[in-house]
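W.,

You were right to be curious about this one. When I first looked at the sequence I had no strong expectations either way, so I just let the prediction run and decided to look at it fresh. Below is the sequence, 235 residues in total, followed by the output.
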Amino acid sequence: SKKNKIYYLGNCFYYDTIFSPAILQIYPTEIEKLSQAINLGKLKNVLDIGANIGQFGYTLKSFYPNLNVYSFEANKEIFSLLKKNSSYFNRWKVYGKAVGNKNGNFHFFYSPSASVEGTFIQENTSQNYTRKDVKKINVEMVKLNKENLIKFKIPKNIDLVKVDVEGYEKEVLESLKDINFKYLYIEISTEKRKGGDIKTIQELIKKFGKESKLIYCDYQNKYSPCANALFSLSK
């Protein structure tokens, strides 16, 4: 509990909270489930929004090193850990910025004891537990329009978009209108403020001219505050 790194999938993984090593155990199974639904080995570009310290991206790159991964993390106070964890891999770019439906600087809330639950919606920081150490910081948000895609050297054609933003799903999806992507893997914050459900996500996708098909959704039970859902998209 007093350490800040652990040997994971061949390298040292740097972390910020005592729970991180336990949570890491989830990710190989998560990637395996994704690979059973879609052929990850045939994908080229992955956009990772809400990367935290790189748990998803690191695990994905460990199994599929040829993927190009573009990871965004809003929390500048943990961004150095994401940079360290991404440094073992080629073709993995990281950005210390939030993704949303506007450009500018905004308040972001997180607990140092649970940075994985950082959010723009303050009350969502205490969704699972009452947090007394919540910090408010200013972060930069960018909209992934055509201009910013060029600026950050991100391709317009993305195979898989992964989103984990603690209730800010709507604003993130509104930012992706200029991106052509085949699959959306998203944590749906069903019980969090501003969160939605499967129907809400599909309606948002339809607004920018695409249809979506739910491949799977892994609700733990009917009381779960969130669930990972995978969609395939078509014009």
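Here's what jumped out at me. The CA atoms of residues 52 and 73 lie 6 Å apart. And, maybe more interesting for your project: Helices lie at 20-24, 26-37, 55-63, 79-86, 146-151, 169-174, 198-207.

Coffee later to discuss?

I.
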